[in-house]
Amino acid sequence: MLRSLVLCFAFVAPVAAQGIAAVHVRIDNDFFALRIGQPLMDFDYTSGLEVGVEIDRTPPWAVRILPYEAEQVTTRFHIGQEIYTPRSRGGRIIPGERPFAGWLYGAASLHAESATTFQDLRLEVGVVGPPALAEETQNGLHELFGFEELVGWENQLPTEPGIVATYDVGRRIRLSREGNSRVEFRPAVGIGLGTKWSGMTGRVQLIADHRALSLFAGFQGEWVWRNEILDGTAFRESLSTPKIPVVAQIDYGASLRLGQFEVTARFVARSREYDGQPNSHQYGSLAASYYF
User: Fold this and answer.
1) Model-level pTM?
2) pLDDT digits 0-9 by tens, 87-130
3) Cα–Cα distance between 103 and 135 in angstroms, integer?
4) Percent of the chain, pLDDT > 90?
5) How many angstroms separate the CA atoms of 31 and 41, rounded?
6) 169 in Cβ contact with 113 (< 8 Å)
7) Whole-angstrom Cα distance, residue 177 to residue 183?
């Protein structure tokens, strides 16, 4: 695993050295979810963090691997962490609950657009288990903000490296454009293959832009063949819970561009993902970008 990370860094570093065009930071947390008359949540997909850099020139070989021609291609490199916890508290293992799990990863992605199409290609390589540092992150933040320590991390998924590659392709359908205003409809389909997640997605999104403000809303359906966070590790015995193979998601939010800064707020609601989950789950996402 260490050797693979060293080789990956040796490959990526010369490319990233071409120059950084932007820096992106995204924080996910169910604390940010829009709740009316509901208690705070701290379970299921409870927290996530991703930091990325965008380089100012995409290597020609990277453009050639995309199936469709593109007028603009953006390359990013990311590091991130995801944290998942069951709804029950304490060290007991309760049948039907999801296991404690963390996913620590590095990723590279391409986003390509033309006047009528867009494509997203992404490769993640990471690890689940104690090396993902999910227990330290969650309980460290709980201590910092005065919440109780979460007991039960000794039952988390065991250490195992993982990988997932995803590809999404969609159409850009312009509904209207007047001056600095634009409304666009984007249907898309995608596929994912890997030990961490495998399945297919279908998505529709509506985007309305006016000057520096962008509003968006979308619906996504997923058919999930494998989800390591629920199915357990691929090559060794671990806790697991029966997943629901068809999952729906709605999301909506807004972005605001102020000079070289951009901020985005996004709210997500997902249908039940496993048999023991009593209802849907919500979380919010806050992102910030700086463009050089």
Assistant:
1) 0.90
2) 887 778 888 899 999 999 999 999 999 999 999 999 999 999 99
3) 11
4) 75
5) 6
6) no
7) 7
